[in-house]
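$ ./design --mode recover --in tokens.txt
reading tokens...
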């Protein structure tokens, strides 16, 4: 499915087909894209696969890739990637608790769970399966992808989301 993009002319918006929007983006020295929803990410990834924007979207959306990128800065921070299909076969005694378990690519806390101790592991994984089955179709793969699961140490304190806007 293609997405319509808008251009501005004389203060009025006009709609562009995907091909024209892609050409326009690639012709700009400092291209801008504005989207009011993460659902627009699939258009960028499909139409601008070699752009810096695509590189950074993938890096910031994929929690495992992001942690891999910054592991030298935080060498003692524990995390592990596991394929979703293998989550039931993980030895729960291999981890230090508490820990967080979540899809590598997620949105709005989708399927993020705290596991305080190993005795909670099986129940949390069961809940994770239910939430994923119930909600997976609500998001595109670029917004929420459960192919890989991130298991990481729990950091006490308030959690903040960060959005970046730049020009």
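writing sequence...
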């Amino acid at each position: 499915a293609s997405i319509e993009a808008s251009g501005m002319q004389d203060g009025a918006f006009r709609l562009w087909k995907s091909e024209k929007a892609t050409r326009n983006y690639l012709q700009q020295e400092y291209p801008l894209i504005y989207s009011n929803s993460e659902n627009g990410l699939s258009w960028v990834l499909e139409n601008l696969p070699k752009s810096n924007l695509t590189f950074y979207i993938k890096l910031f959306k994929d929690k495992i890739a992001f942690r891999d990128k910054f592991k030298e800065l935080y060498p003692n921070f524990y995390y592990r990637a596991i394929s979703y299909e293998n989550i039931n076969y993980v030895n729960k005694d291999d981890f230090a608790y508490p820990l967080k378990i979540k899809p590598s690519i997620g949105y709005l806390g989708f399927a993020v769970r705290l596991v305080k101790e190993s005795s909670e592991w099986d129940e949390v994984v069961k809940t994770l399966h239910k939430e994923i089955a119930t909600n997976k179709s609500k998001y595109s793969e670029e917004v929420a992808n459960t192919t890989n699961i991130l298991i990481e140490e729990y950091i006490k304190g308030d959690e903040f989301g960060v959005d970046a806007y730049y020009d």
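exit 0
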